[in-house]
What we know:
Blueprint: E1 9-14, H1 29-32, E2 37-42, H2 59-63, H3 68-75, H4 80-98, E3 104-107, H5 129-141, E4 146-150, H6 157-163, E5 169-175, E6 180-182, E7 185-189, H7 196-214, E8 218-223, H8 240-256, E9 261-265, H9 271-286
Parallel strand pairs: 1-2, 1-3, 3-9, 4-5, 4-8, 5-7, 8-9
Antiparallel strand pairs: 6-7
Helix pairs in contact: 4-5, 7-8, 8-9
Bound molecules: zinc ion (2 copies).
Amino acid sequence: MIKRHPGRTGIFFHYQQGERLRDFPKALSPVLAKDNVFLYDALYDHKPASAFDLNPISIETLHKVHSRTMVEQILSSNAFEGALYSASGTVSAGERIFSGEIDNAFVFTGYGDHHAGSNFFGGGCYFNGAAIAIHELRKKFGTQRFAIIDTDAHHGDGTWEIFQNNSDVLYICFCTSSFYEQNYNVNIQVPHHTDNTSYLALVKNAFQDWVRPFQPELIFWNWGYDGTIGDYGDLGLTPQVHQKLAEEFKEIAHEICRDRLIVILCGGSRRDLATRIIPEIINVLAD
Length: 287
Ligand SMILES: [Zn+2]
Ligand SMILES: [Zn+2]
């Protein structure tokens, strides 16, 4: 096997309340010691000094994907700031990848993506960061083809709705709903109780059958760990599956889209799992 240079990995982080990320950014110390890992962080509460600032996207940008009514509703809730910075991290990651500053990224979110549609939200999701990033990257870099691969335990109804009439975006959702394919929106059925080996095989097959022939220019990985044993979407997966998934995603991104991969933190509630698995995934990205 040919030895590759390690890519440059960006970590996009905003400071937020809440249990699952209580150990961050402290738990990133070992991975941040690497020369090829950069932290982009945002003022949210009390932010330590940093060389790379994460700036929020504008309200007009949110309107490109979400209805005015929906944005108004979120704006008046106390989740707005966290939701805005979550989506901003994904947009910034995409822009820095296409401008050549970094190769891949891990985006911390307070609120995830995949239950946020053009005019509805729920299940801890407010804005669809991947959809907003796709809009911005098309505008700024002319990028056409994207893949969003969703290994959160639940069905991504928001992402599905946004891209159901868009054949330039391949959306693959792994969840317990039946197989369904419509205009490059693909639902891959996962049994209610599975194991690491079977799950990894499903993912590899989907790469082979859908992602490779589609030839996206960038892959978004909606990564949730809620399907891990003991979390709220328990599918029977053990914590080890996530590092293996990260290796597979990194490899496919290397083979087909010049390493361009953005990992977006989605579901999962356990603090111990976050503290253990997130640095493992970032290590794979930066290796
Ligand atoms: Zn979920
Ligand atoms: Zn699904």
